[in-house]
């Protein structure tokens, strides 16, 4: 496991723990179980952090999942309050500036489970197709979710979200999306590699659109690249997003699907890949437009 992946794994677990701390510190239990006695206990919402990945409060600042916000607006068929819209826009701004699908790689618990399923499948030798559904399909799924929310009058995805099944389930006992999560595990184990995260997750579709302007990008040193394809084998999003840089047509991975997970950087035996800040206007082979943010050590 490479250095970036180790750091990312720590962050993924830390995010799970972070949302579980407020109820524990208030004397509550996990998964909706009450751990206190008959005496009065504090409300977890009184702390610095409270909530879930769908809706949370950090030091009094509301942060909202942008897809859930769109669903809520569609379901109510009206604009939400200014504070709600600002809460969603803050999330959009942060992930938009960094790299939209960084949420998927560094925060989302379903991706953590998906990587575990990937490892199990490799260990037991189960072969599945690399791709069965186009990665752009999740944008259409996101649009369909919002439309369905308007049709039925409630946030459709929030009712079956596997993200909520893990995040809300551990903290509050809300396991509404557990069935979806089980289906995802079975599909990724037996049907297709990372089919949910790559092609079907509507929240991933929203962040894919945001990812097209992200400022943290994987860059390539064409002179160092030995064309071993280990980066493509390691890619968590879709190896196709690496094609332009590996073909020498560009110096950074531009696809909004890139998760900035660092798996390709860790896998490169020639240190040809690195994270860099900024997006050059067009393909500029061989130019180093800014200093690297991180790189894997060369093994040559």
Automatic annotation (TrEMBL):
Keywords: 4Fe-4S, Electron transport, Iron, Iron-sulfur, Membrane, Metal-binding, Transmembrane, Transmembrane helix, Transport. Residues 216-245, 249-278 form the 4Fe-4S ferredoxin-type domain. The keyword Cell cycle does not apply. The keyword Electron transport applies. The chain crosses the membrane at residues 79-98, 139-157, 169-191. InterPro entries: 4Fe4S_Fe-S-bd, 4Fe4S_Fe_S_CS, Electron_Trans/Redox. Gene3D superfamilies: 3.30.70.20. Residues 281-300 are annotated as: Disordered. It holds the Pfam family Fer4_10. This is 4Fe-4S binding protein. It comes from Adlercreutzia wanghongyangiae.
């Amino acid at each position: 496991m490479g250095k970036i992946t180790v750091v990312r794994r720590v962050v993924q677990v830390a995010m799970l723990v972070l949302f579980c701390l407020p109820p524990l510190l208030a004397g509550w239990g996990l998964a909706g179980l009450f751990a206190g006695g008959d005496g009065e206990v504090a409300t977890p919402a009184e702390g610095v952090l409270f909530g879930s990945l769908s809706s949370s409060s950090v030091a009094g600042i509301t942060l909202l999942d942008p897809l859930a916000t769109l669903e809520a607006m569609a379901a109510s068929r009206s604009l939400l309050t200014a504070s709600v819209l600002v809460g969603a826009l803050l999330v959009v701004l942060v992930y938009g500036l960094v790299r939209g699908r960084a949420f998927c790689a560094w925060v989302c618990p379903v991706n953590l489970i998906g990587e575990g399923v990937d490892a199990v499948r490799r260990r037991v030798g189960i072969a599945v197709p690399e791709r069965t559904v186009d990665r752009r399909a999740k944008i259409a799924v996101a649009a369909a979710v919002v439309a369905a929310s308007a049709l039925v009058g409630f946030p459709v995805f929030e009712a079956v979200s596997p993200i909520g099944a893990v995040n809300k389930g551990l903290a509050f006992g809300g396991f509404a999306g557990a069935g979806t999560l089980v289906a995802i595990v079975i599909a990724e184990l037996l049907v297709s590699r990372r089919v949910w995260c790559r092609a079907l997750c509507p929240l991933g579709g929203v962040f894919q659109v945001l990812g097209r302007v992200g400022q943290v990008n994987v860059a390539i040193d064409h002179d160092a690249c030995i064309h071993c394809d280990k980066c493509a084998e390691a890619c968590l999003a879709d190896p196709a997003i690496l094609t332009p840089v590996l073909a020498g047509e560009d110096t950074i991975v531009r696809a909004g699907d890139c998760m900035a997970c660092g798996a390709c950087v860790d896998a490169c035996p020639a240190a040809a890949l690195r994270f860099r800040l900024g997006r050059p206007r067009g393909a500029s082979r061989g130019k180093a437009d800014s200093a690297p943010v991180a790189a894997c050590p060369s093994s040559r």
